[in-house]
């Protein structure tokens, strides 16, 4: 588990989703006796609040639940309590919006509450072996899929990032072209591609976006 960096609320509302009634009932029974936790229905979920998905494996139903709860205005985060989780399912769960994972074999009340409180505080939490596997998958994605296409995890190419860095320094499009040995038209096309793909208003908005996202 990671150390928490923010003060936590005294009580966290938790909505429990499970594919079968017995799993939900057992998890709810555990949480009802935990200090600082209030079990609520999804409609009652407010802030601070969290959704807990309980599953044997990350199948289609579990992924749909994770995505729906992650997009819900009330859910401040989604934690996953799972029996089996292979590498592909781990990545799919994270992509769907899971912020913390706990194995059901390790689901003591203390561990379950610690996972809930970590996710509610915005702290990602995974068992150490799962974290290592996830990092390896991220590395493979960069090496095998993104890098051959000239992309980074930001969705921007190195060429696009270089243009944005120079624009952030106050250069105009002609000066950017001179620095990078591009024509001014090429620079303008690059800016247009960025703003269109990311739905940004103009080059100023693109630079602000890149700075805010920590890309430049």
Summarize, please.
With 216 residues, this protein is an alpha/beta fold.
Structure report:
- With 216 residues, this protein is α/β, with parallel strands linked by helices.
- It has two domains: 12-127, 3-Layer(aba) Sandwich (Rossmann fold), CATH 3.40.50; 149-212, Winged helix-like DNA-binding domain superfamily/Winged helix DNA-binding domain (Arc Repressor Mutant, subunit A, Orthogonal Bundle), CATH 1.10.10.
- Helices cover 50% and strands 12% of the residues.
- The chain has helices at 21-32, 60-71, 87-96, 109-120, 128-146, 158-168, 173-180, 184-197, 203-212; strands at 12-18, 37-40, 49-55, 78-82, 100-103.
- Strands 2-1-3-4-5 form a five-stranded parallel sheet, with helices on both faces.
- Strand 1, helix 1 (21-32) and strand 2 (37-40) form a beta-alpha-beta unit.
- Helix 6 crosses helix 7, helix 6 (158-168) packs across helix 9 and helix 7 (173-180) crosses helix 8 (184-197).
- The chain is elongated.
Helices, strands, pairings?
Layout: E1 12-18, H1 21-32, E2 37-40, E3 49-55, H2 60-71, E4 78-82, H3 87-96, E5 100-103, H4 109-120, H5 128-146, H6 158-168, H7 173-180, H8 184-197, H9 203-212
Parallel strand pairs: 1-2, 1-3, 3-4, 4-5
Helix pairs in contact: 6-7, 6-8, 6-9, 7-8
